[in-house]
Task: inverse folding
């Protein structure tokens, strides 16, 4: 079963790489990129002027950005929520402890009154045992 999962994972990885390669090849040979210009911080990059390693660097940059978006952003959202939930649980536990401490004399008095007021249970005769 483990081998089947490894084979499926390998096939998915190969399919993903082939798909990325096909999209990049189509974009490189079929699309007119001469009019595509990226401007970042007053620095212009013409897409038609990119060759070879420039495309590889651009693809790696996009993959790193996607990795950050998929891994770091959810962790940055979930971690503070978990910390807040843990802190809220600790506060609730402290409040329950204080309430139990404050009401313990009242609970003791109620328990003692209940022991005095309840009807007495009949006692078993001497020498009687529990039979199954």
Result:
């Amino acid at each position: 079963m483990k081998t089947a999962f490894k084979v499926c994972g390998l096939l998915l990885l190969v399919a993903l790489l082939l798909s990325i390669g096909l999209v990049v090849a189509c974009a490189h040979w079929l699309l007119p990129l001469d009019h595509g210009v990226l401007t970042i911080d007053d620095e212009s990059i013409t897409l038609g002027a990119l060759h070879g390693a420039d495309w590889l660097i651009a693809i790696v940059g996009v993959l790193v950005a996607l990795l950050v978006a998929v891994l770091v952003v959810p962790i940055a959202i979930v971690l503070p929520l978990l910390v807040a939930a843990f802190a809220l649980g600790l506060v609730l536990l402290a409040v329950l402890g204080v309430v139990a401490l404050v009401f313990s004399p009242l609970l003791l008095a109620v328990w003692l009154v209940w022991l005095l007021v309840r009807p007495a249970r009949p006692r078993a005769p001497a020498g009687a045992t529990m039979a199954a």
